[in-house]
Specification:
The chain is an alpha+beta fold. It has five domains: 150 residues, Resolvase, N-terminal catalytic domain (Rossmann fold); 113 residues, Putative Large Serine Recombinase, Chain B, Domain 2 (Hect, E3 ligase catalytic domain fold), CATH 3.90.1750; 227 residues, no CATH class; 48 residues, no CATH class; 55 residues, Multidrug-efflux Transporter Regulator, Chain: A, Domain 2. The chain contains 26 helices and 22 strands. β6 and β7 form a beta hairpin. The radius of gyration is 44 Å and the shape is elongated.
Length: 690
Amino acid sequence: MKKDDALPASVTRRKAVVYVRQSTAGQVQDNLESQRRQYALVEVARKHGFSVVDVIDDDLGRSASGLVARPGFDQLVAELCAGTVGAVLCLEASRLSRNGRDWHHLLELCGLVEARVIDLEGIYNPCLPNDRLLLGMKGTISEFELGILRARLVEAARAKARRGELRIAVPIGFVWERDGGLRFDPDLRVQEVVRLVFRKFEELGSARQVLLWMRREGVHFPRPSDGKRLISFDWTPARYRNVIALLKNPFYAGAYAYGKSESKTEIIEGRARKSYGLRRPMEEWEVLLQGHHEGYIPWEQYEHNQAQLARNAFAKAGGVKSGRGGRALLAGLLTCGRCGRRIQVVYTGKTPAPKYRCDRPNLALGLPRCMGFAAWHVDKAVACALIRAVEPLAVDAAREAEQMRRNQDAERRRIAQLELQQARYEAQLAERRYAACDPDNRLIAAQLEKSWEETLRRVQVCEQKLEVDDASIPLSLEHDVLDGLAEDLQSAWDAPTTTTRTRQRLVRALIDEIIADLDEPSGEIVLTVRWKGGQHSELRVRKPRTGEHRRHTSDEAHGVIRSMAGKWPDDQIAASLNRMGLRTGQDQSWTARRVQSFRGKHKIRAYRSATDDSGWLTMTEAASELGVTNHVIRRLIRDGVLPAEQVVSQAPYQIRVEDLRADSVRQAMEHHGHPCRTTLESQASLFPDG
């Protein structure tokens, strides 16, 4: 139709709908002229005779490609179906739809209710074949135009990305130069934190452990102040996503990567829905330019980090998880020698204790379990083998550990100094802003004064933190002290301050894998240890019997109790065991009741009191017989005057009655209480007679 053709009264009695849409939020903010032109269609509708005009602008900032929901378009379709719309006004066909499905569906509805489609070019009646053909061509041209524009932009971006010149968003620690190159962020504090994360991951082998270390040491991570542009940063406590994103990003290895993710389209409720950000494997990335710029780490270290993260997450073949603590030393290191699967750690019992089990055949196929054995005796055997292997290099290792400690202290101090330096700069900046403000303008001056005070408090906190760090740094150990520590590796391994995680990391530094099998005839566990460097060794460990556990009384304590039981009461036996430093199986001191319980369990005869004619006396009985103290009896025994016997070392003395009545004891008792001096016949008297 032509512009000046009049509309029938049956159409103008219904309402006109002006559909307003722009594709992106940027267009809504910047392309204001397009908005004005679309809203101006209200006057066009009134000129055509419509008294009621509605504006639907719910789709501002939404694409019409059919991949996102458009509530405004859905409202328009609903009102057309209700028959209350006489005309649909739009600036051009692309405002209504950019895909053929929605466009032809709209035309079909307009034709059913005899509604008109009006744009700046004219009035169209979808009921007429010529108008319907023209509208169909406009919709097809709009859809084709969108495809051409998208393909042109995407190909241009890809071509620029293949040269490494496309300015994509770069991670924290990098900035784009004016000539298109990448360089390190000029903020030294940002650089130091990024390098620190990579160093700690190389040391700890786990992204979570890096996060926990940063939290424990109070190391903060930079966050863009506006959430997007890397111009200014707010330093906040680190999060796991900060650490893991930094470790997985190839930009830190000097590589330019483009097309790392892809989109996926699904049909949901009859409409196409596209999801973005689905990560691709590295071999499917569109662009990967190694050596594009200077990196924080080499590419080889980046590949090693990705392999370590994959092993930590899924325990894949070819490697083991990083040591994560727990009570099992060999968690993730043991492989079943029968089925080749990884042996798992389980905790069983009233007081759960770790055990190694290969349950996969039983769980997956219903087959018998390959093997299962307690962890403590296997862990002890491997620890002894590890200490024997480390002993020749223990001194060098101790010195290297001391150097690493110094480096870590220097890193922590460097981070604290940079934080203090930035806090002082912010305090000086706040002071200058306050000084430049008019003091009479209290609305602004009060806020600037408050900001200045906050920065000064931050400076004070940073200074106190640096002082605490300086005071907590231990003195450097001398070489002779390091040599002494290296020679006593077993004590260092068993020390309470040595955590299971530390032991696990040491084991993983020297051992690649341990293959476990059972030798049924001999009742032994056979461990084939694959050391770093390709060497192999075999360990055989006796498999504990059913019900046997490590909380049992030592053989030495057992022998002492069996030797003393018939001659001494339980309280004397308990005192002797405590003096010898022996403990119960539960690592407790001995009491008479515990000795009695032990004797009953092992069927050891009880103490029978000595009779008068037994011929033996205790130290107390001997002292009472001679009328002296126990100290005198102990001195006679020490000097060899009074013979005495002990069942075991530290046990009470036993004295024969005959020995107590010997001449040597009688002579010693005659001199008791007199000065101890010797008379010689050849010695002249100091006071001669006469």
